[in-house]
Specification:
Elements (H helix, E strand, L loop, with lengths): L6 H14 L4 E6 L1 H13 L7 E6 L1 H15 L5 H6 L4 H8 L4 H26 L5
Parallel strand pairs: 1-2
């Protein structure tokens, strides 16, 4: 696994900047490889009692992680088979694992539209006044 070494210097710089402005909390947002390394460094570092370091995963990587969670939770529900009618099998695997962001967003949007269409058709059949 790729473990960058730029985190420690970046955190020291942020700590110095926080001390200059008397900040109690240092917030740091980064991508996934830096986040993992930075979280380990913060856990092992003993800072002063007044300064707290908050490490956050960046927005893009949070969305990718969320899309991967949807694929993991929905495994076995037929989502893979439904997406196989639109995309190739390897592409569906990358979509459900949280990679291929643009395709994943489009695939989930198409699934949502298809499900809503089925739900509204069923409602129209069962409830004639629904039309």
């Amino acid at each position: 696994m790729y473990k960058p070494n730029a985190v420690a210097g970046n955190q020291e710089e942020q700590k110095l900047n926080a001390l200059k402005v008397a900040a109690d909390i240092i917030r740091s947002t980064m991508d996934q490889p830096l986040y993992i390394k930075s979280r380990d460094i913060v856990a092992a570092t003993n800072l002063s009692d007044t300064t707290q370091v908050v490490v956050r995963l960046g927005g893009f990587h949070t969305i990718l992680s969320f899309l991967g969670c949807i694929g993991y939770i929905m495994a076995g529900s037929g989502i893979k088979e439904a997406l196989n009618t639109i995309y190739a099998e390897k592409t569906v695997d990358t979509i459900l694992s949280g990679h291929a962001y643009a395709r994943a967003v489009r695939a989930h949007t198409l699934l949502e539209v298809a499900l809503y269409t089925l739900i509204f058709k069923q409602l129209e059949e069962e409830e004639p006044e629904f039309k």
